[in-house]
Design a protein that fits this description.
The chain has about 260 residues and is an alpha/beta fold. The protein is built from 11 helices and 5 strands. It has a 5-stranded parallel sheet with strand order 2-3-4-1-5, sandwiched between helices. Helix 9 links the parallel strand 3 and strand 4. The longest helix has 16 residues.
Length: about 260
């Protein structure tokens, strides 16, 4: 968390006109009587804390817009990347780290539809710290489980930097937490889970994040994982919350094109 605050503080220091920091603070709800805090030596750190307050409202967009014309694109890009995931519940995101590197083949269930949302949960959990992740999702034919296993193994290979002449037999766990984000891509969950159980047995240190959208997997489908190896991220996303967040993040990114 401290390094995250340090980064935001540094990025705010790249705003060419410091008067615009007052505008940024006002958009974040800082009262006029408290604006003097922004001008203190630690004022940018104070403002960084305001930017990182949890909440999916439009304040973040308006605050970044207030300074966007006074920053070089490189620094604005870094700032946007570091605040775009603050909408994610820190309580839910931290559940992703319960199993990181545990070597027990955990399955984390997130009621989201977009892999980008999973990325933002990971960024929230780690404060954009060190982790590795790849996304798996493919439409398949009749031999569903076998095709999925082949696809997932190819993604696991990429996740671990395996390239010729090395093969999956040479795979070694990374030092940092390793996540496989799985988008069912319209494939039946029973086939997806059957394939993932095979992946779990072969690569037990990989944490699987399964995107289920509005579907709650039946306990019969999850039974073979063992209750101690399954984590439902809570509080769950509410109806419309993910779509609203995706729009807000897109709007933030659009500031880079102004």
């Amino acid at each position: 968390m401290r390094r995250w605050i340090d980064r935001i503080t540094h990025f705010l220091g790249q705003v060419g006109d410091e008067k615009r920091l007052d505008d940024c603070a006002v958009e974040l709800g800082v009262q006029q009587t408290d604006l003097h805090l922004v001008r203190l030596p630690e004022g940018k750190r104070f403002l960084a804390h305001q930017l990182l307050d949890e909440g999916p409202d439009r304040r973040i967009y308006r605050a970044i817009r207030a300074v966007s014309d006074f920053m070089e694109r490189e620094w604005l890009d870094k700032l946007v990347r570091d605040v775009s995931f603050t909408w994610v519940s820190s309580e839910a995101a931290i559940g992703l780290l319960e199993f990181g590197g545990a070597g027990e083949g955990p399955l984390v269930i997130l009621n989201a539809r977009s892999p980008f949302t999973a990325d933002e949960y990971l960024d929230r959990a780690t404060c954009r710290g060190g982790y590795w992740r790849e996304v798996a999702g493919i439409a398949i034919g009749e031999d569903a489980v076998a095709e999925l296993v082949n696809h997932y193994e190819n993604v696991v290979a990429s996740l671990h930097g395996i390239e010729e002449p090395w093969t999956l037999d040479d795979i070694q766990p990374r030092d940092e937490p390793t996540f496989l984000v799985v988008d069912p891509a319209g494939v039946r969950l029973d086939s997806v889970l059957s394939a993932l159980r095979i992946i779990r047995d072969r690569y037990p240190w990989v944490v699987v994040i399964l995107l289920v959208g509005t579907i709650t997997p039946h306990e019969d489908l999850l039974g073979e994982w063992g209750s101690g190896h399954i984590k439902f991220l809570t509080p769950q996303l509410q109806p419309g919350e993910e779509q609203s967040a995706r729009r807000s993040v897109r709007d933030l990114r659009s500031l880079l094109q102004r």
